[in-house]
Automatic annotation (TrEMBL):
Pfam families: HipA_C
Gene3D superfamilies for the chain: 1.10.1070.20
InterPro entries (alphabetical): HipA-like_C, HipA_Ser/Thr_kinase
HipA-like C-terminal domain: residues covered: 168-386
Name of this chain's protein: HipA domain-containing protein
Keywords, comma-separated and alphabetical: Kinase, Transferase
Family membership noted in the UniProt record: Belongs to the HipA Ser/Thr kinase family.
Amino acid sequence: MNNSCTVFDCRDPYNPVPVGSFGLDDIGNGHFAYGRFYVDKEGAFALDPIHLKLSKERQEVPRQADGSYGVLSDAGPNAWGVKLTASILKGNNQPLPANPIEWFLHSWHYGSGCIGFSQHHTQKPNLGVIANRREDLSAKLQSTIDQLTIDPDTSLTDADIRLLAPGSSLGGVRPKTVVMSEGLEYIAKFSRPDDVFDVPSVEYATMRLAHKAGISTPDFELLNIANRSVFLIERFDRTKEGGRKHYISAHSLLAPSGLSIDKRELVTSFSYAGIAEAMRPFNIRGQLDSHQLYRRMIFNIFIGNVDDHLRNHALLMESPSRYVLSPAFDVIPHSAASTAPQSIGVGAQGAASTTANALSQCGRFLLKRDEATAIIEEVRAVTACWQQEFSDSGVTKRDIHLLSSCIDFQR
């Protein structure tokens, strides 16, 4: 069993640089040490500016409540990626990874950001298979995904693996892979047999609406593959030249522990405002990004996106240890929104999905009350036209009717 690995900076995927070593003790707690030469290297940066500062001392990396290890786990798989990797390994009669280190080492390194892993600093990370073209997406691939979603023991052909393997490094529960389009990486997100509505087309429509509401979004597109929708979204953690950007999720940034019985953390740190305050010391667009985060919070409230957890917000490193808020992603209505609160805190009333709650702590976003109110009304005016926008985006009347119970621009 592998209990340690070397962590690499793969911003230049053709020249990965060893950053340090990560290991696990007997009870699963982690420890990390930057390489002595790396700390003094020009352009060296802290993998996490709060929890893994650039230092020659060994640092503890506690296992979080969900079993993750902060920024290191941002680059690794979960949910869909774990299911896909397990299927591929079983098909090749290979054992499943025995611990988080082995999961990192089994990665095809298409995960978020620029971090890579190998067993030793002299061994470069396996950057994996080359992503296929968007034209290679097919009805057969969608059928394979459907089978794998239902049965994790589904046999995969070599062609299936070539197409799906890049998605095994990605987070989230939605089936996905990585494809190339005009020299750029895109994430292709598929429907599932148990979807209540056409998720790819609804995500496409929601992102169109978000863009009109002044929210920063990547380029995106909706494909039709044999009468099935596939949502394509450009990777914002990649450069136009094929390089990779360092990525840290809000979950890693805040490193939340479990909530107290009274959930007081939803009013303080486990919240949108908590993200804004935590990122501000090293954010090169501090005020602008705080305002942008507030706008996204309001949009999520109106559109019924109650799955706005901390892993669905992130920062991108623009220069060593200087960050910006990433474009929005995973923004989509949820059928539970009519009765459920947001996943993280909104204001003084915790996660309550109301604009009154959002106004209660607008100062933490560097907004005066009249400025916050103006943002709310701008987003409300756009969201009020959601049915027309969804119809224009190809969402069916049935799905629009179904979603009308969770989208509410009067909250």
